[in-house]
Design goal:
352 residues, mainly beta, four-stranded antiparallel β-sheet
Length: 352
């Protein structure tokens, strides 16, 4: 969308007594040296050691040691582009998506750890504007763009990006002016067995697209997320094919806005939840894999917050400016944001 705008904790006790609630204050946050001052907008962990990130000024970053050291670079010929999304396959292979009108929306790929980048897709329509993408595996992926001509704009690949084809069938009609916020690379999430979810909106309504067949057909549902100019759903995350969360925000966010909702039926229905504490809401948020109870980490320009009860209550952890977050495990997550900031998160509680 053109407006883009934890210590590993082991809980023990008598087996006949309920385990104590996780303490969000046990989450540790360590600032890492990124080697760049560029705005960082998206992050994609492969595992606890290999992580890729991307941002403004054609910037990409990579670590293979959990962030102890980061390699920063720029894609040649792309210095003016904002890479609002990144998807990592392994230590050598990653995709970047840039946003913008017309040919500013592009997809690049590297297979040699960033030494070389191949331009795979350049948006051919001056009205087009792509927002984010995700992949089911190394070969199959989708990218979502803003509406024009009454159609949802979507492209897909089945061959690792060698070809990207426009999705012409199986999509519902678009709302006028509908698009996804390109704020964190988290407006689309792929799941197991061909599932994927996409959040999108115009100033009047927020909606969620859902596929169960790798994008051949799509269903759409209304979300109970506040929308207005510059405010709407920013991120979607599912911890399995049934349980998901949508988080919203924007620079025009107000205290009374509904900015969180959960689904327990794969996205067919949604229940509004407590607004996260960040004043301008959320740019990016995810379920942390392997946590019990399930943890949600949500980030935005006013800091990091955590919920252990499916967004019923939140605790704010800091007030730095972040745009996105991603986790490999409860021991290893990364939040990225302004001025090259990378914060490693560990110790998100796992109840034993």
């Amino acid at each position: 969308m053109r407006y883009a705008a934890l210590l590993f904790l082991v809980l023990s006790g008598c087996t006949s007594q309920p385990a104590p609630a996780p303490d969000p204050r046990e989450i540790t946050r360590v600032e890492q040296q990124s080697g760049t001052s560029a705005l960082l907008i998206a992050v994609s962990p492969v595992d606890e050691n290999v992580v890729w990130a991307s941002g403004s000024l054609g910037t990409w970053l990579r670590t293979t040691d959990g962030g102890a050291t980061w390699q920063a670079g720029r894609v040649p010929g792309a210095d003016s582009l904002q890479f609002r999304d990144v998807h990592a396959i392994d230590a050598n292979t990653a995709y970047l998506l840039s946003i913008g009108n017309g040919d500013q929306s592009r997809i690049y790929k590297t297979t040699d750890a960033g030494a070389n980048w191949t331009l795979q897709f350049t948006n051919p329509d001056p009205r087009g504007f792509y927002d984010c993408f995700d992949f089911w595996d190394a070969q199959r992926g989708i990218a979502i763009g803003d509406e024009f001509d009454g159609r949802i704009q979507m492209i897909r690949t089945d061959d690792g990006g060698t070809t990207w084809r426009k999705v012409e069938s199986g999509l519902p009609a678009a709302q006028s002016g509908e698009g996804s916020f390109a704020a964190s690379g988290l407006c689309v999430e792929t799941g197991r067995d061909g599932h994927a979810w996409i959040v999108m909106s115009n100033p009047q309504r927020a909606r969620l697209l859902h596929t169960q067949d790798y994008g051949a057909t799509w269903a759409i549902d209304t979300l109970p997320i506040t929308t207005r100019e510059g405010v709407g759903p920013q991120a979607v995350s599912f911890r399995d094919n049934s349980n998901g969360v949508v988080l919203g925000g924007g620079y025009n966010s107000q205290p009374e806005d509904i900015l969180a909702a959960i689904s327990r039926d794969g996205g067919k229905t949604w229940t509004a939840r407590t607004r996260p504490p960040q004043r301008r809401g959320i740019w990016g948020g995810v379920f942390v894999p392997g946590t019990n109870p399930p943890a949600i980490i949500a980030v935005g320009p006013d800091g990091i917050a955590v919920s252990y009860d499916e967004a019923e209550t939140w605790m704010q952890l800091d007030t730095f400016n972040y745009w996105s977050v991603g986790f490999a495990s409860p021991r290893a997550g990364w939040a990225v944001g302004m001025n090259g900031r990378i914060t490693k998160l560990s110790g998100v509680s796992v109840r034993q």
